[in-house]
Design a protein that fits this description.
Layout lengths: L2 H31 L3 H34 L13 H8 L1 H32 L5 H9 L6 H11 L12 H8 L14 H26 L3 H9 L4 H12 L1 H16 L3 H6 L9 H11 L3 H32 L1
Length: 325
């Protein structure tokens, strides 16, 4: 098929797709207008929500229910095995390592990303070239996890002592007279090396949101506190933090959800070897490498259950904010 034919096919597909959606909406709207007025106001919102609800049901709710069902079956999804897959998930050595690593990721990535983002957000207010500085820090956020992992593979690249080092860190270390370090193979440091990538990616995200919240604090409150003799540290802890608490909570929970889902960085950098396994990478291994769909689904359900409470807290917080406006 020529390039022209491909482009024409794409254009036709877009026209048919968009035209079809518009046609459905107009047809449903026409049908709603034929109903009595008291029914029209009740049904019309559901007509516009129906396509989104159908897609959500087809691509999220049904697959989730199917995953829960498969998690109680054996590796070929043929026989019912009860809680056996969940027992494996909470007792196998590989999964315990994955849980430990995920906990390490949660604490360090969330703490450092949000902490750095908050400190930078406060300091940025005093920087002359704030947009440029923000753009530079936010830039890694535009890079995919896989792309960032490829970049950092060159930073962490390792060659034996005496060989020419192509990795940035080992180049610096050997130029200072020290031995090169296997950043991704040394079990004592490889998890921290991977976590550093995630912190590098997420700090810009935290900075942008928290900076907007800091700028939303009324200037007269800050000036009044300074006139009363409050130091910058006191203003930070007693005014800035309390007044951006809701944004801080949203940023923190968003980072926590991202960390719980982390997979790309681990898979690209170490494939989960050398003690770097996390829950998501273990799920992929069980599901596609070992073809054990029961265990893979059980791990997926555990990951889902870990994320659900955080999402519920976020939704409740949004509702409280909406009602308080």
């Amino acid at each position: 098929m020529s390039v022209f034919s491909k482009i024409l096919s794409v254009i036709i597909a877009v026209i048919i797709g968009c035209g079809g959606v518009l046609g459905v909406f107009y047809a449903m709207n026409y049908l709603a207008n034929t109903l009595p007025h008291k029914w029209r106001s009740r049904i019309l919102p559901w007509i516009y929500l129906a396509p989104a609800l159908l897609v959500l049901t087809a691509y999220l709710i049904l697959p989730t229910l199917n995953t829960i069902y498969i998690s109680f079956l054996d590796r070929r999804s043929q026989n019912f095995v009860g809680w056996e897959n969940y027992q494996f998930a909470f007792t196998s050595e590989a999964m315990l390592v994955a849980f430990r690593n995920n906990l390490l990721w949660l604490v360090l990535v969330t703490g450092f990303s949000v902490g750095f983002g908050l400190i930078l957000a406060v300091l940025m207010d005093k920087v002359r070239y704030e947009p440029l500085a923000k753009s530079l820090i936010f830039l890694p956020m535009a890079i995919s996890f896989v792309g960032a992992s490829v970049i950092w593979r060159f930073v962490y690249a390792f060659r034996p002592a005496g060989a020419a080092q192509i990795g940035l860190l080992n180049g610096i270390i050997t130029s200072l007279g020290f031995e090169p370090v296997g950043w991704l193979v040394e079990r004592s440091i490889n998890n921290f090396a991977l976590i550093a990538i995630m912190i590098w990616l997420q700090t810009g995200f935290c900075l942008v949101l928290l900076s907007a919240a800091v700028k939303g604090i009324p200037k007269d409150i800050i000036e009044a506190a300074r006139m009363d003799g409050a130091s910058e540290v006191q203003i930070f802890w007693r005014i800035t933090i309390p007044m951006i608490r809701s944004t801080l909570a949203v940023v923190t929970t968003t980072v926590v959800i991202m960390v719980l889902k982390v997979f790309d960085i681990v898979f690209v950098m170490t494939a989960g070897n050398q003690g770097t396994e996390v829950i998501a990478s273990r799920m992929i291994k069980e599901m596609f490498n070992y073809r054990d769909y029961g265990r893979g689904s059980a791990i997926a359900v555990i990951l889902l259950l870990a994320i659900v409470p955080i999402m519920v807290v976020n939704i409740r917080r949004f509702r409280q904010q909406e009602t308080s406006r």
